[in-house]
């Protein structure tokens, strides 16, 4: 973290803390992954829910809560520091698996997902912010690739493990005991081993140099919360294009989480095979980011994002027309690859444009819109599925994804340049 008492930027200079935060974010992903395979099946088989819109209330509750909490996490991280926000997130995670195990009604599941949304908003946002703080500008894409890879590989591994546990021991309680172990371990690591990183952002702010083309001259250090929100949401072309693309990405993920297991089950696939399909998509997504994150540091951000949105649209169309395990597996791999191209690159884009003085708030706003996609996806997919069927819902989301890619192609400019916004720290 420091040499001779001095703070330094760069992954190598902060390797111990950076690696610890990668491990902590894997536990964040695992906490989410405990639900991916089991909860849609629990809704149908235990609580006997029939309407897709009603079934997806847990995704809606999660998405709304996580989106709002992301915004709060960004503001609080700038105001009070990163570590207190991370600690609060893990304390809130502890009751979630217990509520899912003992839930006597669907309302308990929805309430558990409200807490899960708060946990994910506080913990995942903060680990993103802390890694950007430590990494500095030269390896921002690599930092985000490692962060998101750890989280989504953990989602995949946990989805696969819970599918196995559910097939062998039943839908409750065995699958959710993993989530309880993850939360307890992460709380201990955060309390005793994680260090505050806000001073690294302050160090980077002192090294600010203006972009040569003058594009960001209006994005000075002392923007208010409302100005940060407006720039990230609407006014700044790269930030706003990234925000809408992030929302559509998680709209896809909300669809995959809530309806894909049910679609796969309509052909009579056993729970174990549904678990494999549920794990394939986040596994490729997670592993792929180990390549796409650093690739965006070399090739730039915009074209990877545009290509990724197109690949996702094709994958969703393939899922809509397929009815066999093999074809769905190919589509899941494609969907994961497309998402890997986009996910860390969008976060790196936010880091490229936002000034270190308000970068945590910009990340919070971006993640507000991105994770709002869970809620939009739950509502849209549920309503369309109830009216016209599961496959129609997938087709609608595929079309939206293609349009989102066009918006990025038209509106976003390249944000990673050979002369970056901030002077390079030690890498």
From TrEMBL:
Matching entries from InterPro entries are given as: MFS (IPR011701), MFS_dom (IPR020846), MFS_trans_sf (IPR036259), MFS_Transporters (IPR050171), Sugar_transporter_CS (IPR005829)
**What is the annotated localization of this protein?**
Cell membrane
Question: What topology does it adopt in the membrane?
Answer: Multi-pass membrane protein
Q: Which Pfam families match?
A: MFS_1
Carries keyword Cell membrane?
yes
**Which Gene Ontology cellular-component terms appear in the entry?**
plasma membrane
**Gene3D superfamilies, A to Z:** MFS general substrate transporter like domains
Q: Where is the Major facilitator superfamily (MFS) profile domain?
A: 9-416
Question: What CDD domains does the entry give?
Answer: MFS_MdtG_SLC18_like
Single GO MF descriptor: transmembrane transporter activity
Q: Which UniProt keywords apply?
A: Cell membrane, Membrane, Transmembrane, Transmembrane helix, Transport
Q: Where are the transmembrane segments?
A: 12-29, 49-73, 85-102, 108-129, 149-167, 173-194, 304-322, 328-347, 394-413
Enumerate the PROSITE patterns for this protein.
MFS (PS50850), SUGAR_TRANSPORT_1 (PS00216)
* Annotated protein name in UniProt: Predicted arabinose efflux permease, MFS family
> What is the organism lineage in this UniProt record?
Bacteria, Bacillati, Actinomycetota, Actinomycetes, Pseudonocardiales
